[in-house]
Amino acid sequence: MRKILLLSLVFQLWLAEASRAQQTIKGVVKSTVAGETVAAVSVSIRNASEGTYTNERGRFELRTHKALPLTLLLSSVGFEPREVVVSDARQPLEIVLNPASVLGSEVVVSSSRTRQRKLTSPVTIEQLSSKDIANSPQLNYMDMMQGLKGVDVTVSSLGFTSVTTRGFNTSGNTNFTQIVDGMDNQAPGLNFPLGSAIGLTQLDVDNIELLSGASSALYGSRGLNGTMVMTGKDPFKYQGLSLLVTQGVNHIKNNKSNDPVGAAPYYDWTLRWAKKVNEKLAFKVNIQYTQAKDWVATDTANKNGPGNRFTDPNYNSPNFYGGATSVDINPFLEAARGMDASLAPLIDPLLQHSNYVARTGYAEYGYLDNNARLLKTNAEIRYFITPKTQLIASGTFGTGSVVYTNDTRYQIKDFKVGQYRLEARGDKWFVRSYTTQENSGKTLIAGPTAQYINEGWKPSYDEATQDGWYPQYTMGLLTALAGGAALTDAHLAARAAADQGRLVPGTPEFEALKTSISGTPISEGGTLFLDRSKLYNTEAQYNFAGLIPFVNIIAGANWRLYNLNSRNTLFPDDDKPIDVNEYSGYVQLSKKMLQERLSAAASFRYDKNTLFKEPRVTSRASLVFEAAPEHYIRFSYQNAYSFPSNIQALQNTLNGYNSYSSGGSSFLLNGKYKFDQYPPYTLESVQAYQQSGDPSALKRFVYNDIKPQSVDAFELGYAALIGKRVLIDVLGYYSQWKNFIGYANVANTPGTQNPEAFKDHSKYTQYNIAFNGGERVNTYGYAASVSVDLSHNFLAKVNYYSDYLKNRNNSQVNNFNTPHYHINMEFANSGLGKKQQWSFNTALRYKPGYFYVVSGGLAQGTVPASAVVDAQISYKLIKAHSGIRIGGTNITNRYYSTGIANPAIGAVYYATFAYNIF
What we know:
Elements: H1 2-21, E1 23-31, E2 42-45, E3 51-53, E4 59-64, E5 70-75, E6 82-86, E7 93-97, E8 107-108, E9 116-117, E10 125-129, H2 130-135, H3 141-144, E11 151-157, E12 160-165, E13 177-180, E14 183-184, E15 205-212, H4 216-219, E16 226-232, E17 240-250, E18 264-276, E19 281-293, E20 320-321, E21 326-328, H5 330-339, H6 344-350, E22 356-358, E23 362-363, H7 364-367, E24 371-386, E25 389-405, E26 409-425, E27 429-439, E28 444-445, H8 446-457, H9 469-482, H10 487-498, H11 508-518, E29 534-543, E30 552-564, E31 578-593, E32 598-609, E33 616-628, E34 631-642, H12 646-650, E35 652-656, E36 659-662, H13 666-669, E37 681-682, H14 683-692, E38 709-722, E39 726-738, E40 741-748, E41 765-772, E42 777-791, E43 794-806, E44 822-832, E45 838-847, E46 850-853, E47 860-863, E48 866-877, E49 882-889, E50 908-915
Parallel strand pairs: 1-7, 13-16, 36-41
Antiparallel strand pairs: 1-4, 2-3, 2-5, 5-6, 8-9, 10-15, 11-12, 13-14, 15-16, 17-18, 17-50, 18-19, 19-24, 20-23, 21-22, 24-25, 25-26, 26-27, 26-28, 27-29, 29-30, 30-31, 31-32, 32-33, 33-34, 34-38, 35-36, 37-40, 38-39, 39-42, 40-41, 42-43, 43-44, 44-45, 45-48, 46-47, 48-49, 49-50
Helix pairs in contact: 8-11, 9-10
């Protein structure tokens, strides 16, 4: 009997323990507005480690070992935090949260690698949340960057937007870092961020943080112009199936635009599916596909002087490709006079000066394929090895066709880029390895390809037959002059005669020749890149917070390998791929003082690049003082640097007849181009010599082996939240650059040092070379922003910022392409009506006209002033967990451009259906 009683007691105790161990609290979380369920709410237990998130229907299940009663802690962005006491777990809970203003409560990580309120950040930082993106009138998050304080963008095409800060603005900025889920999002060979071509899909963005200005001390080389840190959504937190379908139309012509494309459809479809399998395992899958008729670049300005293609025989335009082939026809005129002395009265007056004639170019529309498409896919698995240790594996792949602007326009067709990551993460540490692998696909280089097409159809001059385009042009010119035509009309007649039978875009003959040329590698006489470069990166970080009582320390190390593999089409790697290693280590110390009103921090970083002998040590120091509750004054000093990118050091690309884009290493300049034997001259002075015939016009180009550039940047700022409804941020900065890397156009005459060779275009070679300017370049600027919560879900924002450059090196193209000021405004409401089902957002971006120079000598000129208005209105279908949005970007349809030689951008009018958007 005693045994039975003892067994019964043990069994009851086991049941009680089992019941306690398996205790599950269930519930649903709703908003006080219309009873709408709230997803991604953090649900945790006070004084316990257990926690979870509500799913896409606002429901949660929380298993705990803690005995009842217990207190649940609930929090979510946009809602007041709440505590709920649970005494009985048998009945599901229904918890209601009150909406709250998020103004001033934003949390950032990138400014100091630790979580802190944006208001207390030691440096200027801009932020976009998933809710900002969902409510924006813009079509994608990259375009949203245009409205942020201190940000410049260059839009090369629908699928390629380059972002930067502090004035240095160009397509493919190698001094701006873009980080996606901890991975550097740069192209391994070209070293510039890939924009939205690969990375997070529209539905998977949780948070974007943008640091203005120098950030090398935290994020390494090439962070001189800023860093953008993008974080994807955690599948444990954001669950379920989400769908975003956008259908629109663009290329709506107006009377003032010269858009050659008619009205065309715009499609964007995005899907995200995430599932928490259990408390340890979750996964997500993302896919986004965009297709549209791309914007077309139509800059017709004459690069070679005054006049247009009807008045200047030497006309060459940024977006008419092929006109870079230019020859002085005087030798052909002299030959004609020698054959027929009676032509002397017509020819002799012409021989009193040079007579340069450019071959006829092809306009971009019809020549480049403007069918833009982008496909991005992503998959991720997360597994908790222990309650505080998580293992993450992810893969991201992007492909498509977009257009990019540099020394010419590049149609990046069928490119492929993949990023693959394995990461282990604890609450104070992480170890992360990833690789980026690129395939340039069938990239078409617009300018050189057009030149080769012209030559393939009819050579400029064939010595064997003594015939060609230029001899035919010369005879056509003389025939027209003999017939009494004026000189301008005679040149037009000569071009028509020489162009007779010219291949026309779209015809089988033209497309076959274009395909043959663009499909033959540069190293074999064509224009095809064969870039298969790879990047491998491993990094680790540990937060020593709590282990050392008097200071908080974060330390980390990083190793990176660039495997440059272009088969001698982009780099001098004809024998084997070139490996470039980078090693770095960093430490950050921070401490709060004066009763935690003063926060001080210092960071130090050591970096070594195997292309350069000397390592670099950089630093950052900052102070943040709470002058009054919610009023903060910040000061920072940052020393940032940039090793020359692989392109700036090693590029060796033929970009036209006898024309190269070149890095600035002595390996190329002396070893390959023989500058030490055949000295280079500035291209400007070569052109002056051609016009004047005076050898004294030639000016030597002084060069040295390229070396790292650096900047010392100071910033003073003030941020305040007034009455919980007005958020103010004001700043001023000053930077001094040393060994600034820019570009110069030069020429030399391989095989001879006789200046006479510069008179014949075919006997000298042009180079666009990266080099260090000798002067110290200074930049400075200021900015201010105000955000006002007008209550009843109305929010107004305005920002103003300005950037300036001093001590410009006139021999460099330095890419400081920005107006003296920007103004951005936004007025929005996130919930109108009784059930707050209606919402809207309007934004205005204004920029005055400004001077813009494109690297590589492609173009320069004034970008006209622009005032762009975007707007959208939305309606929630609460029971269907869906929404409908109607809107437009640039709704006034006043075409504008963000840079010379880049496309003019018109309106896109669209309708969007969204399902289960958080």
